[in-house]
Structures are given as structure tokens and as C-alpha cells.
Amino acid sequence: MASDAIPAITERDDRRAALAVGSFVLVGLVLLVAALLVFGRVHLLSRSDRAVIFLSGSVGGLAPGSPVTFRGVRVGSVRSVSLHLSPGSGRSSIPVVLTLFPGRVVLDAPAGGVERLDLARQVRAGLRGELVTQSLVTGQMAIDLEMRPEVPAVLHGHDEGMVEIPFVQSDLERLKQEIPKVPLEALSRGGLDALHSVTALADMLNSRLPPLLDRAQGTLDGMEPLAPAVLASVTQLRNEASLVLAHYDRLSAEARALIAARGPELKRTLADADAAANEARRLLSNANQLAAPDSETRLNLEAALRDAAAATDSLRGLARDLERDPSLALRGRGR
């Protein structure tokens, strides 16, 4: 009886030990799956797409698990970061494989349904990726996706069944590349020269300003006794100016009164002067007409003068004939 009980007890202990080991293994697997789900490295219940992006420059701070965002919304994570070298040409490339979760992005279909995310079509529409700083304190980096159709797509021809997202440099990366091009040495020399110039100017002012201030103070002290005389002169000038202004006001009033009293006479005088001026203009116009070479009056006057000259010549000839023969007055020239 005792010998039959011992094997039964041993068999029960073996079953209990196997059950404990199986429970421990099952709990470990559950904890492992839970850890993978919590840390986001494995998504067992969601479909994922993979894409690749080729980065240029330093990728320090970017590691597997780094977030992939689209306008601040996390849509995936970095799966792997590797370095590819070309021994012949010496070129290098850094492909970064991304794991994207299309469930985080909902595309509204025209009929009101939900459309599946097509990365290739989104790339053709302008989807681009850039390397951004996730934290300035820790230096961690992230991949940010953005629709930038104005930026040309530069592809590297990756053919491992993954869609390639073109890479564009962020503003911070462009600034980092431009900083080494800044002539810091020339700027520092210019700054030092400017500082030396300012120092020399300050030294010159410190050496010249005190004597100038002393002379100015001496001039002010010398002018202080003249202040009463200057004040008296200014007061006298003000009084004389006031008197002149008073005389001017009185003269202006008298002139206005005289003009008001003699207004009709002045008007008549101005009218007579205007009439005389018009008559003078008329006489001048007539004189101009008489003096004109083709004027009729001038032509008649010239003809009359010619006739008078001819008559004068005839009288002069008659007078000569009478002087030679006075009897012509009695018998005439025909006898």
C-alpha cells in the first residue's frame, strides 16, 4: 500500500510543477506583448505601411522609435536608420525606414465613405518629409511630413517594395548650413575695429570735452554781468517796437479812412485815366495806320506832295521867265 501511494504523490507533484512552469511562461508572454503594445514598437491589431526617406547631413538624435508626425499628429515611428556607403564613388546615403499607421489618417471619400491611404499618390500630390528637432533639451529628432507640392521631388530610386518619400531640408537645417558660410573672422575684425574707433572717440572726447566745458562755463560767467544791460536793451527795444506798431496801426486807420472818403473821386480819376489811355491807344493806332507803307492816307498825302512839288516847280520857272522878260505878264507866253 505504501509503495503504491509514493508513485501517485510523485506524479501529482510533476503535474503541479509543469502547470507552474506553463503559467510562468504564459504570464511572461502576456507581459511581453503588453510591453510591445505600450511602447508602440509592434502594432498587432492595426495595419501598417512602410516607407523610406533618404536623409542628408547629420541624423544625430534620430533613432528607431522616433516619432513620425504630420502637422503635429503622430502617424507612425522610425523603424530603422542605416548608412549605405559606395566604395567606388565615396558617396553615402542614410535611408530611414518609417512605419506609418494609416488608421491615424482618415481620408474622406467623395461618396461619404473612408478611403485607404495611398502613399504613392500622396507623394505625387506633394507629400514631403523633413528632419525636425523634437526637443531642444535632449536633442531628440523626429520626421515631420507635410504637403509641399511647390518643392520638386528628388528620389533615390529605392526598389525594395516601399514608397519613397522625398526629403526636404527644414529651415533650421538650412540655417545650420548657412552659418559656416558667414565670414565670422571678417565680422569679428570689423567689430574690433569699430570697438577701437569707439574707444578712440571716447578718449578724444574725454580729453577735449573738459576744457570746452570749462571755457563755456567761463563764457557764461563773463556774460552774467551783462545780463541786466541785455535785459534793459531788450525791454527798450520791445517798447520801441510797440510804439512803431501803434504808429503803423494809426497810419493804416487813417489811410483806410482817406480811401473811404475819397473813394468816388478816385474812381472818377481812374475812369478818366482809363478813357485817356484808350484815346491814346486809338491815336497811336491811327498814327500806325498813317505810317504804314501801304496806307491809303499815306499814299494820298504823298500824291498831294508830288502835285505841290510840281506846282512849285512851275511857279519857280514862271518867276525866272518874268525876271528875264517882264512883258510876259502882259502878253503871255504864247505871244
Q: What's the gist of this structure?
A:
With 335 residues, the protein is an alpha+beta fold. The protein has helices spanning 2-39, 119-125, 171-178, 184-223, 227-261, 263-291, 296-324, 328-331; strands at residues 49-55, 67-70, 73-81, 84-85, 92-100, 107-108, 114-115, 127-133, 141-147, 163-164. It has eight helices and ten strands.
Relevant terms:
335 residues, MlaD family protein, 10 strands, single chain, Mce/MlaD, elongated, membrane, alpha+beta, two-stranded antiparallel sheet, eight-stranded mixed sheet, 8 helices
How is this structure best described in words?
Pfam families: MlaD. InterPro entries: Mce/MlaD, MlaD_Phospholipid_Transporter. Residues 56-147 form the Mce/MlaD domain. It comes from Rhizosaccharibacter radicis. Keywords: Membrane, Transmembrane, Transmembrane helix. The protein is of the alpha+beta class and 335 residues long. Among the domains are: 49-181, no CATH class; 263-321. It has helices spanning 2-39, 119-125, 171-178, 184-223, 227-261, 263-291, 296-324, 328-331, and strands at residues 49-55, 67-70, 73-81, 84-85, 92-100, 107-108, 114-115, 127-133, 141-147, 163-164. The strands form 2 sheets. Strands 1, 2, 3, 4, 5, 8, 9 and 10 form an 8-stranded mixed beta sheet that branches. A two-stranded antiparallel ribbon has the order 6-7. The chain starts with a helix and ends with a helix.
